[in-house]
Amino acid sequence: MKYLIYAIAIILLAGIHIGLFGYLKFFGVTPNILLLFVVGFCLQREADDSFFIALVAGLFLDFLNGLFIGSFTLAFLLLALLLYFLIHRLVVFELSWRYLLAVAAASTVLADIFAWAASTAALHFGWAQVSIDAQVLKRHLPLEILYNLLLAYPLYALATWLQNFILQLQGKKHRIL
Q: What's the pLDDT tens digit per position in 51-105?
């Protein structure tokens, strides 16, 4: 049941990504709200389902951008693994929204670099017809970081609310935002 709820949330966010932010471009750049949703979910200690969310969100972003299947999927899964290791193994204090901006900026850079590397490798091996252009990525990355920083907290709040909703359905204690 919870995976169906996660899939519906990702489908709705993908629709918002295409519909709303397709028209609200900031100098030709759109925010990556699926990435921010994955990051918001990964930043919660109780989020054991963050890999499923990263997988599904990455697949949707690959389909939406017309890239080789696995470019953003691999990037999101590697990012989720990195954040899981960081949160569960290294950080001994509770993360709060104050660290969200730094994590969102770093995640945007890492996800774009991972996706660029995966799509370029796929193009090199003849598995894909197109890849992410490095010059366009370099030009759009600062604006994408700025746009993502503006939307980081609302998507973190959505991820926290969704996790609390799932925990409430399961009869467990929920987390405070």
A: 999 999 999 999 988 888 889 999 999 999 998 888 877 765 666 667 888 899 9
Domain residues for the domain of 118 are 2-170
- Sign of the Cα torsion 18, 20, 23, 29 reads negative
Whether 177 maps to a domain, the answer reads no
Position 71: which residue type? S
Helices (H), 86-99: none
Predicted model pTM? 0.89
SS3 content of the chain, % helix, strand, coil (to 5): 75, 0, 25
Contact 145, 108 (CB under 8 A): yes
Q: Which two tokens stand for residue 130?
A: 């197109």
Q: Residue 12 falls within a domain, yes or no?
A: yes
98-156 pLDDT per residue, tens: 788 889 999 999 999 999 999 999 999 988 888 889 998 999 999 999 999 999 999 99
Q: Alpha helix locations (H) across 43-133?
A: 50-65, 71-85, 100-124
Token look-up 């670099």 returns 113
